[in-house]
Write a structure and sequence with these properties.
Structural class: mainly alpha
Largest sheet: 3 strands, antiparallel
Helix content: over 70%
Number of helices: 10
Oligomer: single chain
Distance between the termini: 71 Å
Order of helices and strands: HHHHHHHEEEHHH
């Protein structure tokens, strides 16, 4: 056989060699981001404030698999490598500072870099909903959490006290403490609406992504989660004070108090679903007119 024929002859490479770059990429990803992955999973499991991640994480993976590959998606390795380099830099700096939030944010940025590298920006926008849910599953830093929680506690206290006063219940408010005859109620972070706001924001994103078509309707639905959470938690404070004053002080503690919170949380879901239904009908009517 001539040298030209030998050069033109196809080389039979092992099948595993074609998958070697993917295996190396996955191994490097796990090596670099193992700590943020494990600490995030640990907080999902152990921390009640972050337990919503146990639902949002698998749900995001399922939604990404369900939506599949975007039509016309093409790999953009240069941009993907740039995003990965930025993610590694953030991961390294946050590791030096022992700052968990940015460390976990680097995990999300690295995931986006892999998506762009293999399937391009079109695929990233195609998976906007799963990525947004993953972002919401990252616990908020304690500094920001406390900054947001205190004003919400004060608003819930004021609104609940106003409703109690409207029902002729003698009440005085001092910050986030409501004084009733013979009993004082302390409005904690759990009653501030911050937990329900995170869950409602995730629900608003999910419903908006699945039911609604336009970005404006989705933004309106997401924005409505703030007043809904504040309204329902003000009602929770009112109901607690009302039951403590007229029924028994035990309604302020334990299982009964948490059951009351869950009932109002279901009501918040129902209200948000009603808002989404109205927006969906408005969108359908608008499409009919056009």
């Amino acid at each position: 056989m001539t040298e030209a024929a030998l050069a033109a002859r196809p080389v039979n490479r092992p099948r595993w060699l074609a998958h070697a770059p993917h295996v190396v990429t996955a191994a490097a990803f796990l090596l670099l981001f193992w700590q943020p992955m494990t600490t995030l999973g640990r907080d999902w499991w152990r921390d009640a404030e972050a337990s919503h991640g146990l639902l949002l994480g698998p749900l995001a993976v399922y939604l990404a698999w369900r939506r599949g590959r975007a039509p016309g998606a093409r790999s953009q390795p240069e941009l993907g490598l740039a995003l990965l380099a930025a993610a590694i830099a953030v991961r390294y700096l946050s590791g030096l500072a022992a700052e968990l939030f940015t460390m976990r944010a680097s995990l999300l940025l690295a995931t986006a870099g892999l998506v762009v590298g293999y399937a391009g920006v079109r695929q990233l926008s195609h998976w906007w909903l799963p990525l947004a849910l993953l972002a919401l599953s990252i616990p908020i830093p304690a500094v920001i959490l406390n900054t947001i929680a205190l004003p919400l506690q004060l608003k819930a206290s004021q609104f609940g006290a106003a409703l109690l006063a409207a029902r002729d219940v003698p009440v005085q408010v001092a910050g986030n403490v409501i004084h009733l005859p013979g009993r004082s109620l302390f409005v904690t972070e759990a009653c501030s609406g911050l937990r329900s706001l995170t869950a409602l924001a995730a629900l608003g994103l999910l419903i908006g992504g699945l039911w609604l078509q336009g970005p404006m309707a989705r933004v309106l639905l997401l924005a409505s989660t703030v007043p809904v959470a504040m309204l329902l938690n003000g009602l929770r404070v009112f109901l607690t004070g009302f039951l403590v004053y007229f029924v028994h002080p035990k309604w302020a503690d334990g299982f009964l108090h948490y059951s009351e919170g869950w009932a109002l949380f279901v009501a918040a879901f129902a209200i948000l679903g009603g808002i989404a239904l109205i927006l969906a009908r408005f969108e359908a009517r608008r499409r009919t007119v056009q």
